[in-house]
From TrEMBL, chains A, B, C, D:
HAMAP family: ArgC_type1 (MF_00150). Its EC number is 1.2.1.38. It catalyses: N-acetyl-L-glutamate 5-semialdehyde + phosphate + NADP(+) = N-acetyl-L-glutamyl 5-phosphate + NADPH + H(+). This is N-acetyl-gamma-glutamyl-phosphate reductase. GO terms for cellular component: cytoplasm.
Length: 353, 353, 353, 353
C-alpha cells in the first residue's frame, strides 16, 4: 500500500445521488489523502454534483458521469452507493484491475449465497468473489480486512446490534442466553433512502411513529449470521425495526438474559475493556444513556450497559445511520485498507443541538 | 333546498385519496346531515377507504369506486379533490342532473379563461359553466353563493391573503396603497399534496426552510383577480411562498402601506367590525399574534392587525391549509348552498398541543 | 344517576393549564351533556382560559379561578389534572359533598400504599379512600367503575401495555410466560408535560431519540400491579420507555413468549373476540400495523397481534397519550359513571395527515 | 500578532453552556491553531464539559470553572457566550492584560449608547471601550477589524439582512429606495437559546409557525444602524421575525424597490462581483434558491438575487444561525485578528440531509 504514501488515492463512487452517496461526498471532499476522481449516476449524468447537492458548493468541482463513461478502473478504490445487485456485477472487472471495492449495499454481506438469494430475490453474480470478501465491521474484523479486495459494508441496524452484543459473545466466553436476544431498533427516515415512496413523505412520516418489517427484515439474517460467526453457536434473535420522525439517527434497545453463572460479572467493565482502544466506539459511563443527537454527523457509536436486575442486561446503542451506519464506516474501511490512520477524515464532532 | 330538511344529502367525492380528499372524509363522516355515497379513485378502486386511511376505521364502511362506476349523478353534491382539469370535464353532466359541484382544484377559480390557460397550461373545457360559477370564499361572496351550481373553492394561500386584506379594500373605502402590497406566505408540507416528489420527502423537507415559486406561482393571479374584484382597481402584489417543516398550517405576513388620509383610523376596529358575525374568522385582540397550531384541525382563520408605525400596517393570518384552506371551506360552501347552518360539522376545536 | 337525564352535569377541573388540562377542555367544551363550571389554576387565576389557549377562543367563556375560590363542591364531578399529591388532599371533602373525583395523576393508581410511597416519595393522604377507589381502565374494570366515587385514571404507558396484554392473561387462561414480558415503549414529548425542563426544549428533543428511566419508572409498578390483579400471578416485566420527537403519540412494542401448550392458538382471534364490543379498542387486521398518527387526537387505541414464530408473539399498541392515555380516558370514565353512552363526546376522527 | 506563528493561541470562553457556547466548542476543539484553556460557567462549575455535552466526548478534557476561578487574563482571546451585559463588565480588565475580547452578545453591537440602553434596559458599563470596538461583520468591516481589541459579534438576523443588502448600498451607489425595505425573517428555535421558556418547549413549538416581536425586536436598531453606516443615509426598515419548527437555520426574505434609474442593472452580477472573494458568502446561480439545510452546521451564507419585475428585487438569504449567525462568525473574527487564514477551522461541509 505504499502508493498511498506518495500521492492521494483516487476514489470512484458509483451511484452518488442517494443519501449514502452524498454522505460519502461530504466526508471525502475533506479527506486529506483522497482525490475524488469519478462519480457516476445514470439519471444525473452531466449535472454538476453541487447543483444537486448545494451543501457541496465550493467543495467539489465534478460532474456526474454516466456509468458507461466513468472510468472506474483507474481508481484505487470504488464505493458502491447503489441498490443491491450493482456492485456484484462490476466487482470482478474492478478487482482484476487492482481496484478495491467497498459495497455499501448488501451484495457482500451474507456469506451464504442461498440466504442472500432468498432475501434479496436475485441470483448472486459472483459467489467466488463473495467467498473472498470480508464483512466490513472494523471493530470486529480488523485483521481480516487489512488485505482484502472486496468489502461488504455492514447494514445500519446490524452495526448497532453487533457492536452492542460483541463483548457478550466473543472470545471464549458467552455471557448471555443465545435463545433470548431481542433487538428493538429505531431508525430515522433517511434510512429509507431517497426513493420516492409514499411512506417517506414528510406529511406521512412526521409527527408519527410506527413499526415495519415485523414479519421479516433483510437485516435479520445479516445480524444472525454475524452473531453466529462471533459465537460459533446457533442464535435466536427477535428483531423489530421502527421509524422515528427524525432525519438521521438510529437507536437500538437490546434485551439479553445473563447466564446464571455470570451474574456476578461487571458488564460495564467488560464493555469498557473490549472497546478501550476503539476511537469510534464510546462506552458511556454507568448511568449515562446515549441519544442520537450526540452522534449526529459523526462516526461515533455510543453504547450504554444497563443491568436491570440479576438476570437482565439491556444494551442501548446510538449511531448516525448515514455515518457509522453507512458512509463513515465505509471510509473507515478504506482508511484501514490503505494503511491510513483509521480516524483520518472522520474526526467530526457531532452537531448538537 | 327543502329536500335537505327531509333527509341527509348524498355526497360524492371524486379523488378521495389525496390529502384534501381524506380531510373531506374526516369532516363529512361526522357531519350529521350528510351521507357519503360515492368515493372514486382510479388507483385504489375496490379498496376499502379505511384500509388506506386507518384513522377512518369504524367511521366509514365504503370502498373506492373506479371513476367509471361511481354513480355521481345520483348525488346531491360532488366534491372534486382532484388535480386541475378533472372537475371541468364532468361539471356539465353533473349540473344537468341537478348535482351541485364543488371543485377543490383551480378549474373554477379564475374567471378569465386566458389567465387560466396561461397558468394551468390546459384549455378550459367549459367556459360557459365557469361564467356561471362562483368563487367560494364565503365570507366575501356569501350572497352570490346561495344559489350557485358550481363553486370554485379558493386556493389555500388566496384564502389567507384575501381574508387578511378584505377589510382594507371593500366597501367604498380603500385604505391602503394598492401598489405596495407584499404577501410573504408560509405553508406546511401537506400543501404540496401526496404526490411523490423528492422535495416532499421527510429527509428533504424536515429541519429545513426554503422559498419556492419566487418567479411565479399559480395563486398569484388568483389573489390578484379577487383583490381587483373587491376593490374595483388594478392591484400590484408581490407574493413569495415558502415551505415550513410542519405537516399542516399556513401563515401569511402581509405588508401594506396606509394611505395618508387614513392614518388616524383604528384598523383593529375596522377588522373586528368587518368580521364580527363570522364564526370562522377570529380577529385576535390587539397585541396577540396567531400561530398555526391554534387552528390545527379546525376551520378557523385567525387574523392579527399590527400598526407598526404611521404608515405601515402588517396583517398576520393563520389557518390550517387543509381545513379553512381546502376541505373545511368546501364543506362550509356545501352548508351554505344546502341551507344548513354554516358551522354544522365544522365546530372542531383545534388540537393544541 | 338520574340527575344526568334532567340537566347537563357540572364539571370542575383542577389544574387546567397543563397538557392534560387543556385536552380535557378540548373534549369537554364539545361534550353535549356537560357544563364546565370551574377551572382552577393558582398561577393563572383571573386569566381567561382562551387567553392561555387560543384554540379555545369562541368555545369557552371562563376564567381560571384560584384553587381557594373555585367552588368545586357544587360540581357533579371534578377532574384533577394536577401533579401527584393534589387529588388525594381534596378527595375526602369532595366525595363528602357527593362529588365524583377523577384523578389524572397517580394518587389512586396503586392500591398498595407502601408501593405508592416508595415510588412517589410522599405519604398517601387518604388510604381509606384509595381502598374504595377504582383503577379507571374501563375495558378491564367496567363493572367495578359503575358506582365508584373516586377513579384513578390510568397512566399513559400502562394503558397501552395493559390493553395490549389483557387478552393473554385474563379469564381462566394465561397464554404466555409471565416471566418473559418485555415492553419497549415510546412516547411523544408532550408526555413530559408542560414543565420547564431543559430536556423538553425543542432544540434538545427534536431530531433526537433516546431512552430514559431505564433503571426504574413509576409506571412499572402500576403496570405490574394491574397485570398481577388480572392474572392472579406474579409477573416479571422489563419496561424501557423512550422519547420520540413528536408532540403526541405513544407506541408500545410488547414481546411475549407463548406457553408451549398454546402454540396452536389463533391469537388474532383471541384479541378480536376480547375487544369486539369495545368502541375504543381497534384490533387491526392481521398484517396491518398501527401508527401513532392514525390515532392522533382520538380516543382510539390500535393493537396489532404478530406471531413471529412458534414461540414469539409481538403485540404493537398505538394511542394518543393525551387522549386515550389521559384526558379521553378520563372522560370515558365520566361517561360510564354518569350513565351516558361511553362514546359521547369522544367520537373524534384522528387527524391524518 | 506574530506570537500566533510560534504557538497555538489560548482561548477562553465565558458562559460555555448555552448553544453559542457549545457551538464555539464544536468548532474550536478541531481548530488546529487553538488551545482551549478556560471555560467558565457559574452553574456547571466543576462539571466536565463532555458530561454536559456528550457530543464532545473524546474531543475535550476540561471542566467548567466558576467565573471567579477561571484565569481569563492569561488567554490570548476570550469569547463571551453570555447574556447581554457580561462582556462589558469584564472587557476593561481583559484588554488591559492584552487579551482580545469577542462578545457574542449585544454589548458592542450598537455604537450609540442611548440606543443600546433603550433597547437593552441596562446602562452601558464602558462607553469608551464601545467607541474603540468594531462590529464584527468581516465581509463588510474586514480592514477595521484587523487591529481591534474588542469585537461586537453581529446578531443572527442582522448578519443575513446586512449581507443581503450590502451590495445594494455600498460604494458610491445606492440602488434601492431606502424607505421601502422589508425584511421578513425566519429563525429556527435554537435562536431562542437554552433558556427555560414555555414557548421553547417542543410541544409548544413543533409543528407550529408564528411571528413574534412584531412591535419591536432588538435586532431592528442593530440592522438599521449598520445600514445607515453603510449607506450614509437614513433608513426605513420593516422587520418581522418568525419562528420555524427546526433546530437550526435562518432564512430572510428581503423586499426592495429598485430606484428608477437603476432598472437596467444586472443585479445578479452586482452581487457576484461584490462577494467573489468571500469564501463564506455564496451567491447562488440565477434561478437557484437557498435552503437552510444546505448551510446546516457550516459557516456559509447563501444568497439568491431575484428580479421579480421592473421595480422589485427580492433577496433570499440562508445561514445557520448558530454558525455564521453566531459562533462561526466569532471564530472568523478570531482568525482575522490573529492573522490566520480566515477559513481555518471553518471549512465544514453542511450536513445534508
Amino acid at each position: 500500500m505504499n502508493k498511498s504514501l506518495l500521492r492521494k488515492i483516487k476514489v470512484g463512487i458509483v451511484g452518488g445521488t442517494g443519501y449514502t452517496g452524498v454522505e460519502l461526498l461530504r466526508i471525502l471532499v475533506r479527506h486529506p489523502l483522497v482525490e475524488i476522481s469519478v462519480i457516476t449516476s445514470r439519471k444525473e449524468s452531466g449535472i454538476a454534483v453541487d447543483q444537486l447537492y448545494p451543501n457541496l458548493r465550493k467543495h467539489i468541482n465534478l460532474k456526474f458521469s454516466s456509468p458507461e463513461d466513468g472510468d472506474l478502473t483507474k481508481c484505487d478504490v470504488v464505493f458502491f452507493a447503489t441498490p443491491h445487485g450493482v456492485a456484484m456485477s462490476q466487482a470482478y472487472n474492478l478487482i482484476n484491475h487492482g481496484v478495491k471495492v467497498i459495497d455499501l449495499a448488501a451484495d457482500f454481506r451474507l456469506k451464504n449465497v442461498d440466504v442472500f438469494e432468498e432475501w434479496y430475490k436475485i441470483p448472486h453474480a459472483c459467489p467466488e468473489i463473495l467467498a473472498m470478501s470480508e464483512y466490513g465491521l472494523v471493530e470486529i474484523n480488523r485483521s481480516k480486512l487489512l488485505n482484502v479486495n472486496v468489502v461488504g459494508n455492514p447494514g445500519c441496524y446490524p452495526t448497532t446490534v453487533l457492536l452492542g452484543l460483541a463483548p457478550l459473545l466473543q472470545s471464549e466466553q458467552i455471557f448471555i442466553d443465545l435463545n433470548r436476544i431481542i433487538a428493538d431498533c429505531k431508525s430515522g427516515i433517511s434510512g429509507a433512502g431517497k426513493k420516492l415512496e409514499s411512506s417517506s413523505l414528510f406529511a406521512e412520516s412526521a409527527d408519527n411513529f410506527r413499526a415495519y418489517g415485523v414479519s421479516g427484515h433483510r437485516h435479520h439474517p445479516e445480524i444472525v449470521s454475524q452473531l453466529e460467526i462471533m459465537s460459533g453457536k446457533k442464535i435466536n434473535l427477535i428483531f423489530v425495526p421502527h421509524l422515528v420522525p427524525m432525519i438521521r439517527g438510529m437507536f437500538s434497545t437490546i434485551y439479553t438474559k445473563i447466564l446464571p453463572k455470570y451474574r456476578d460479572i461487571d458488564f460495564q467493565k467488560i464493555f469498557e475493556d473490549r472497546y478501550k482502544d476503539e476511537y469510534f466506539v464510546d462506552v458511556m459511563p454507568s448511568g449515562n444513556f446515549p441519544d442520537t443527537r450526540s452522534v449526529r454527523g459523526s462516526n461515533t457509536i455510543r453504547i450504554s450497559v444497563n443491568r436491570i436486575n440479576d438476570e437482565d442486561l439491556v444494551i442501548l446503542v446510538a449511531q448516525d445511520n448515514l455515518v457509522k451506519g453507512a458512509a463513515g464506516q465505509a471510509v473507515q474501511n478504506m482508511n484501514l485498507i490503505f494503511g491510513f490512520s483509521e480516524v483520518i477524515g472522520l474526526e467530526h464532532v457531532a452537531i448538537l443541538p
